[in-house]
Amino acid sequence: MILFQPPLSHPCLHRLFSCRRLDFKFSFAYDGTSEVLTHTLENAAVIQIGSPVCYQAAVNGHDGKKENRKMKIGWIGTGVMGASMAGHLQKVGHDLSVFSRTRKRAEGLIEKGGRWVDSPAGVAEQTEIVFTIVGFPEDVREVYLGPKGILSGKPACRIVVDMTTSQPSLARLIYDEAAKRGVESLDAPVSGGDIGARDAKLAIMVGGKKETFEKVLPLFQLMGPTLSYMGGPGSGQHTKACNQILVAGNMIGACEALLYASRQGLDMQQVIDIVGKGAAASWSINNLGPRIVRGDYAPGFFVEHFIKDMGIALAESAAAGFSLPGLALVQQLYIAVKAQGHGRSGTQALFLALQALNRAPNK
Ligand SMILES: NC(=O)c1ccc[n+]([C@@H]2O[C@H](COP(=O)([O-])OP(=O)(O)OC[C@H]3O[C@@H](n4cnc5c(N)ncnc54)[C@H](OP(=O)(O)O)[C@@H]3O)[C@@H](O)[C@H]2O)c1
């Protein structure tokens, strides 16, 4: 489904709209200048566009009359997620300046023309917009507010976008500190895992000013087809907390179901193949279940990052005065997974902790 909000009915907009199954093209006259934009969508997509005029202006530059402009983009954090996501921006020709804690993990982007810069402040001095996706809230704090952080000097960039899963309160602090320097800020965490990042199929949940979201929208669309503006600063992170509460439930369900299958002598893959197509289907069982069957506990999504995410949701709910007992139980189990040496394993390693709890043979 392709959804435009509000309808394409701006008075100065005459549109020609054609839609095929996998591609759509639209062209329209805007203040007398004809433009053509082409997007390729590999799958069905929901695209929410606040204003087609803003969208066009954001793609083509402030006057909305230039051809698709190649932008100077900064990217900080080139791990499992960041390297793939930045790669999608690079692929369409944007000029990339990169920084990450370990340079080696940025080599792939540098080989394809990315420019290495020595600090977050340096990245912000040389680019128009900076994206970040690092590990933990303390990393986000360092990258934005540290002595060599994005906001430490005189950033030339006009927009910063943090895509790390981090604290809503930190997102609001960065928003305020950025605003003092005339910089717009978005919190835009993602869902879809390593596969979603690689295949540009992420869901992106965004907090900040709506006008800023609209400016960044064409770049977000290069990373994923499912986008939603959720509200003011911190709203993207609150939405991601909801996402992680759901993932916690799905993970304990998937791992306990597979433990049950193995203990009852069923073929685990056969179980996934059937239950993964019914009402019990989830991303977890369909994508991580087969990794458990193969004994593949490589990340994916690190156990230690998931403990962090559940901790954020638990702290936010406690601060607001409500309890999430199911989430607290799953977080405790994951703390045990980490204690067993699997902090840098994928989240499917929960299966190992459950196996360890159940060493005794069936009665
Ligand atoms: N993987 C997933 O499936 C997934 C899905 C959705 C959201 N997320 C979230 O996305 C974020 C990144 O996840 P990931 O899986 O890509 O983790 P990752 O592979 O550890 O990537 C994080 C990258 O940021 C770098 N970094 C950390 N602190 C830094 C700092 N202070 N300055 C500069 N660079 C820094 C890390 O450097 P080093 O190379 O030195 O460690 C690493 O390259 C996390 O918040 C995670 O919760 C992950």
Bound molecules: NADP nicotinamide-adenine-dinucleotide phosphate
| Biggest sheet features | 9 strands, mixed
Tally of DSSP helical segments:
14
Enumerate the spans where pLDDT stays under 50 for 5 or more consecutive residues: 1-67
The Cα radius of gyration reads: 22 Å
C-alpha termini separation: 51 Å
Look at the structure and name the CATH superfamily of the domain at 70-201: NAD(P)-binding Rossmann-like Domain
Name the structural class.
Answer: alpha/beta
- Helicity range: 40-55%
N to C succession of SSEs: EEEHEHEHEHEHEHEEHEHEHHHHHH
CATH topology (fold) name of the domain at 70-201: Rossmann fold
CATH class of the domain at 70-201: Alpha Beta
CATH architecture of the domain at 70-201: 3-Layer(aba) Sandwich
Whole-number mean pLDDT = 86
Work out the strand percent.
Answer: 15-25%
General shape: globular
How many beta-strand segments? Answer: 12
